[in-house]
Design a protein that fits this description.
2 copies of one chain form a homodimer. By secondary structure, chain A is an alpha/beta fold. Chain A folds into 3 domains: about 150 residues, NAD(P)-binding Rossmann-like Domain (Rossmann fold, 3-Layer(aba) Sandwich), CATH 3.40.50; about 170 residues, Dihydrodipicolinate Reductase, domain 2 (2-Layer Sandwich); about 100 residues, Alpha-Beta Plaits (2-Layer Sandwich), CATH 3.30.70.260. In chain A, the strands form 2 sheets. In chain A, strands 7, 8, 9, 10, 11, 12, 13, 14, 15, 16 and 17 form an 11-stranded mixed beta sheet that branches. A 6-stranded parallel beta sheet of chain A has the order 3-2-1-4-5-6, sandwiched between helices. In chain A, helix 2 crosses helix 12. At the A-B interface, helix 2, helix 6, strand 12 and helix 12 of A face helix 2, helix 6, strand 12 and helix 12 of B. Strand 12 of chain A pairs antiparallel with strand 12 of chain B.
Chain lengths: ~450, ~450
């Protein structure tokens, strides 16, 4: 039997992830020690309530309500409390005392990342956070290390399992948003309060973390443009499917180039987007996550797997724990996060993408020309137009209402225009849509959706 | 401008990958230095012929034919010569002198890995080899670090782009093996001598590397069972497609459990296999690679991307170079490869999988019962049988030949039996197939294919 140096591991939090990490560490300790080259001694698990129910049973004597005291003397502190406080204060204390830190706390990293990374750099400690994005999917380490010699141009991520489940149900089962959310709740895929998921807050935090890493630039979460899935309707999902797309909530991080091809800065955003059915992201179903990535030399890469859940996330946390232990054995200070590129973080208005806009217009001559004029006035180039006559309640185009085709009456027959654009700046497109909405020849702007992955 | 400590980088080889790495290092040196926290000074590129054509232009004064001398004093040696010698001798010399080493040399690692890793551990150097498997796809680092706290149960990898391209053409374009190979050559996806690809040698080397990492156990390449794609026919591919499968050349690494569920050991093998069309690996087209992985806690993960090519592979090499530089800056010895589990490496006979066996038999009563008896005698459990009457050259089952249905004449009508089995040991299945081939009631065993990913 090999004798290892023992490292003292403190776990903060015993929720779905924390309880699993503690339990797996106790169960597989000898195997992990072999891989780490050091013993991993669990010195305690800080909890709020000693008697709360846990998803995995833990020895009572390991539990404590005194997190601050538990940290003292720990070599590695694993933070799985979540939220901003007391997680922030406890992690600053842990790093300040020289401990390496493992965390799955996306909210904390997206909000106070620079403060934590700076302190770690000062004291030579290291912060590991593979579990903060994509659950068990290795994405932080590939971005931080494997692609460190390449230039990442673009990330398209399905990073929120709850919303992917809901959109997938709407697409494949024909459910409404509300019905799909209810199903997600019943299956334990949505929390009692799903606001952070369906409004895109969770995805935006992950986008901030991915963009910061990929572009070596601090991208704070409040610079991430955010639209959730609350406005997505079953009709939109069905229309998208007919047109060869699926709607996915994407976290998008990209380098923004100017008209001259020079790099202007970077942007991060979260919104529902049309993804062509042939794109690898379109095949990501249920609560799974995937990160699709375009790099200059590596080309297209995709990482796919379970994006959440206590057990998968515990896998990522334990991987970080072994990495931290190996670093302790090897000695030397940690490697600072590289944010030295510090490119400008651009607002959503500077982002260029393709759009698919659905309008209801009166079905009479001259309307299409006027609509096309609005696009061209705003510098938005139209790629394709599909027109279909709406069935009027009074009997459709062939019915009584059909008689006033060519008339100007507002109650006359209407048509649906679906306009696909070439790449345009969000700012120009926004002004164009405002002008369309205000125009006499447009009854209603039904939807404006961005197209990604073409 | 920040001043960094300079690290001396020597590159051995200026082929498709080497020339790209040198060129990108010269072009992006300042950016890489920011990320590494150290300058990366290219001190030279060792080549066989100073005047050979290169895929990227390099300053003449950097080229040298004296690799041994170039290594002296280098902090990081990047080996991109390929093959066993002189690569092995040069890397041993580099590691012996305390340099960290980056290599893409799968043949060398699969054959002499332990010798290199042992020396590196002795002197406290580190070996990086992300580019050896899956080109630009980060797979070594996820296995080595991200999954270090988990238990990998199974890897199914499409790790050879040439054969995936060929099988994909046979499936999607209906080409024969020879025609598809010709197309691959024309497009530069197959080498002039494609033997190592189509016989599975390249994939077997990668399987050995993946299995060694995943199971913390030395798995030498000569313990990897290997079958190439040379026997795969267009008829098999077409029949597979009709039955809901695609044929892929898979590198399979797995833990082998006994009947009692206890772990007996590990195995690695390479062979063509039937993959259900709904499996993520079935959607990997062209020269792309993908590694699908099942881990105890993480669940199913997949990593996908460009598996070869000078530029993508250079991305992986440069990522390793930055990692090596960061380690140099941090100081301390390298982390030894963990092979301490040293599980038994089992022969192919111990592997259990499902099979799909196609037999031609006389179309007469009692044949199916006899065939079923052969399976049961060998302990192979049949899951499903599909029978179809062969069209006889003389006019098919309804034609003149149909008259002797029920006769025993060898020239009578025949049927095709496709038998799907439950999981069975390769050893038992092999004996069963031998018995079928020798049986009076079997005219011919057309194909025996393993089914993976169910």
């Amino acid at each position: 039997m090999i004798e290892y140096r023992n490292l003292r591991v403190a776990i903060l939090g015993a929720g779905a992830v924390g309880a699993q990490v503690a339990s797996m560490l106790l169960r597989n300790g000898e195997e992990l020690a072999q891989r780490a080259g050091a013993g991993l001694e669990l010195v305690g698990v800080a909890v709020r309530d000693l008697d709360a129910p846990r998803t995995a049973e833990l020895p009572r004597e390991l539990l404590t309500t005194d997190a601050e005291r538990l940290i003292v003397g720990a070599d590695i502190v694993v933070e799985l409390i979540g939220g901003l406080e007391p997680a922030r204060t406890l992690l600053l204390q842990a790093i300040g005392s020289g401990a390496d830190v493992v965390t799955a706390n996306k909210a904390l990293l997206a909000t106070h990342g620079p403060e934590l990374f700076d302190l770690a750099e000062q004291v030579g400690a290291q912060l590991y956070y593979e579990a903060a994005v994509g659950g068990a999917i290795p994405i932080i380490r590939p971005l931080r290390d494997s692609l460190a010699g390449d230039r990442v141009d673009r990330i398209l991520g399905i990073v929120n399992g709850t919303t992917n489940f809901i959109l997938d149900r709407m697409d494949r089962e024909g459910e409404s948003l509300d019905a799909a959310l209810t199903t997600a709740r019943e299956l334990g895929y949505a929390e009692a309060d799903p606001t952070a998921d369906i409004t895109g807050v969770d995805a935006a935090q992950k986008a901030a973390i991915l963009a910061t890493l990929a572009f070596h630039t601090s991208v704070p979460v409040d610079s991430v443009h955010r639209e959730g899935i609350t406005e997505v309707t079953h009709a939109q999902v069905a229309a998208a499917r007919r047109a060869g797309y699926v709607i996915k909530l994407l976290a998008i991080c990209e380098r923004v180039l100017g008209a001259d091809g020079a790099q202007r800065g970077v942007s991060a955003r979260v919104h529902p987007a049309l993804v062509p059915v042939g794109h690898p992201l379109a095949t990501v179903h249920g609560v799974n996550n995937a990160v699709f990535l375009e790099a200059e030399a590596a080309g297209d890469l995709m990482f796919y797997g379970a994006g959440a859940g206590g057990v998968p996330t515990a896998s990522a946390v334990l991987g970080d724990l072994v990495s931290a232990a190996r670093r302790h054995v090897a000695g030397g200070p940690g490697v600072a996060e590289s944010t030295r590129a510090e490119l400008p973080v651009l607002p959503i208005g500077d982002v260029r993408t393709r759009y698919r806009i659905t309008l209801h217009v009166p079905d009479r001559p001259g309307v299409l020309a006027t609509v096309a004029g609005v696009f061209s006035d705003h510098g938005v180039s139209v790629e394709a137009v599909e027109q279909s006559i709406d069935e009027s309640p009074a009997g459709g185009p062939g019915g009584p209402g059909g008689a006033d085709r060519g008339d100007t009456g507002a109650a006359g027959p209407t048509a649906t225009l679906v306009i696909g654009t070439h790449e345009a700046a969000e700012r120009d497109l926004g002004a164009c849509v405002d002008a369309l909405a205000a125009s006499d020849v447009v009854d209603r702007v039904e939807s404006v959706l961005r197209v990604e992955g073409l």
